[in-house]
Design brief:
Blueprint: E1 4-5, E2 17-23, E3 31-32, E4 36-43, E5 46-50, E6 53-57, E7 62-65, E8 71-75, E9 88-95, H1 97-100, H2 102-105, H3 111-118, E10 122-125, H4 127-142, H5 145-161, E11 165-169, H6 181-194, H7 201-207, H8 212-223, H9 227-244, H10 250-256, H11 262-273, H12 277-280
Parallel strand pairs: 1-3
Antiparallel strand pairs: 2-9, 4-7, 4-9, 5-6, 5-8, 7-10, 10-11
């Protein structure tokens, strides 16, 4: 996707950037940056778009997003309501080879970490590694001086050796074209807000100021998927939220998420999540 280049604040005197955000909602525009990002969601929920992946994120999730990967942690719509009392919190670690210096990252002792970082793409940290990584991030936020750096290297070592990483995207990095950012973000914002109803291609094409044919080509080239597939993934993300919150009526969830046909909803749900709606809501899923 053509996205906004995002500048991570840096001092030039740190091996990595630690950032703790407590906000009404997460930054809602698709963006990318040169730094690798390790993200711990401490509070909040919504839809993650990264590369060619679309799916839910929730409190406790940990993600590793590689350099240049287009992404957005889009909070659920309820967070944007004027009178909403909801808020989000996350701790993020940003770094690239320029922070500690290229010679540092070329050290033989960091070979495994360097190889891991070169192949990250986008991953979700799971199982026992998730617990280990959460603990290390929490320790890093409290540490000072050399101990802080040691814990950071422990974190990278744990990730580089883990078998509990779920790959979300290996989409190639797109070159930035700043004039495109408004068009793609307008399409995303429109989709999130209107996905609970029928959307015609001509309608979303007009948001992008393109003909229907040109829009379909534009979207497919930039996302490696059709707009219809993307819309279905957004709708399934909303459906997952309603099921997790305890909505027992699957038909109501289907229609409330924008699907016009229950059997089509069931097929798309299984395609996106690997489970049926009824299996998804069972305890221990």
């Amino acid at each position: 996707m053509k996205v906004i280049p995002f500048q991570v604040p840096k001092t030039g005197q740190e091996a990595f950037r630690l950032q703790v955000d407590a906000l009404p909602y997460f930054y809602h525009r698709l963006h990318q940056h040169s730094e690798t990002q390790i993200m711990l969601i401490e509070k909040g929920e919504g839809t993650l778009i990264v590369g060619d992946y679309v799916g839910r994120f929730n409190a406790g999730d940990v993600y590793v997003i590689g350099s240049g990967q287009p992404h957005v942690f889009r909070s659920d719509e309820s967070y944007y309501h004027t009178r909403s009392k909801k808020n989000v919190q996350a701790t993020a670690i940003y770094f690239d080879e320029h922070y500690a210096g290229e010679n540092f990252w070329k050290l033989q002792e960091l070979k495994d970490i360097r190889l891991f970082l070169s192949k990250v793409g986008a991953m979700r940290v799971e199982a026992k590694t998730q617990k280990e990584v959460v603990s290390l991030i929490q320790q890093i936020t409290q540490a000072q001086k050399a101990i802080k750096l040691i814990l950071f290297l422990q974190l990278l070592h744990a990730l580089s050796q883990s078998k509990n990483l779920k790959r979300l995207s290996v989409a190639p990095v797109q070159n930035l074209a700043q004039e495109e950012d408004k068009r793609m973000n307008d399409v995303l914002q429109f989709t999130f807000r209107q996905s609970n109803r029928k959307i015609k291609i001509s309608e979303v094409a007009s948001v992008a100021n393109l003909s229907s044919e040109a829009f379909c080509r534009y979207f497919k080239i930039r996302t490696r998927k059709t707009y219809t597939n993307f819309l279905n993934e957004v709708r399934i993300s909303h459906a997952c939220k309603r099921l997790i919150e305890g909505e027992p009526n699957i038909q109501s969830v289907a229609y409330g998420s924008g699907f016009q046909n229950l059997s089509h909803f069931n097929r798309q749900f299984k395609k996106v999540t690997g489970k049926t709606p009824s299996t998804y809501i069972k305890p221990g899923k």
